[in-house]
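Risk mitigation, structural track. In case the binding assays with manganese (II) ion fail to produce interpretable data, a predicted complex structure has been prepared as a fallback.
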Amino acid sequence: MQDEGPKRVKNGKEAVVRALLEAENIVIASHESPELDAIGSSVALGIALEKLNKKVWIYNKDRLESCKFLPGYDKVKNYLPNFIPDIFCTVDCATLDRVGKEAYDFAIRTTIVNIDHHCSSDEFGTFNYIDPDASACGILIYELINEMGVEINEDIATNLYAALAKDTMCFLLPTVDKRTMKIAYDIVEKGANLGIVMRAIRYATLKKYKLFSTFISRIQIEDSILHSYLLFEDYEKIGATDEDTEDFIDMVRTIDGVRAVIFVREKTPGNLKVSLRSEKEIDVSEISRKRGGGGHKNAAGFSITCSSQTAKENILKIIEVIKDEIIKQIKSSDAQNF
Ligand SMILES: [Mn+2]
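Fallback model:
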């Protein structure tokens, strides 16, 4: 970036705090097909900014059923306001297009604040607070709320706990560190409602388990890589939604002998979502980034489109290609550790 003489620092916690404190109207947005880190972070930040008497509009393109128990989820709208805010603040988005086309076009008309923890994160904001070491975006939101001097109430604490629990697989992932645990301790002390969080995290429909049985029936494990897929017709047959597939990949990643997982699903006719998980030394974010996606080193994904008639063929081809790339990584890391 060119230096235009003295100007404000654009990156880091302080820059973002100052930008948020100076704004009057703020739109908060998170990625499409959200999960509890995206929504919990958005709502927690929204409540905190409201306590500072800001006019806040929380946006997400898609509804997340599991969030209906969370305090403040009723504040989240799936449409944008008819005014241009001082700030459009993204949370948990590695790239700006993750908010969806409509919100992207809206965002670029104003100042963007980007709060994120993906290793593939772009500094697309006017102001950015990006920390890939944070186990959840909720960690960064907690730190910003404290820095802004807002008292964390029970509703903020509950949303933040949901965010942390989601992105750490309930504090089981190796990304959990002292920082995560200290924050978890503090938000429990501030009254996080763990009963509500459990209902949100473990939210399921019977349709989900019916779809899961289809997913399980197609599992194959080759060269320690587990793969499976779902077609749009599987969703239709059962009446399930894409949200129902949310944790399928995490439920099978610890199957004995499995070092990586490839899960491809046809979310809507011809629209394929590829989700990847891996053991520590295997970097699936690199594989995803090459294809326009991103994520974390051991949890990443990307999307592709094809004709709905050839979805199954395409899926099987993708699985083969990705499998080969992962095998190459496994071979080179095994060779290094030999
Ligand atoms: Mn996240």
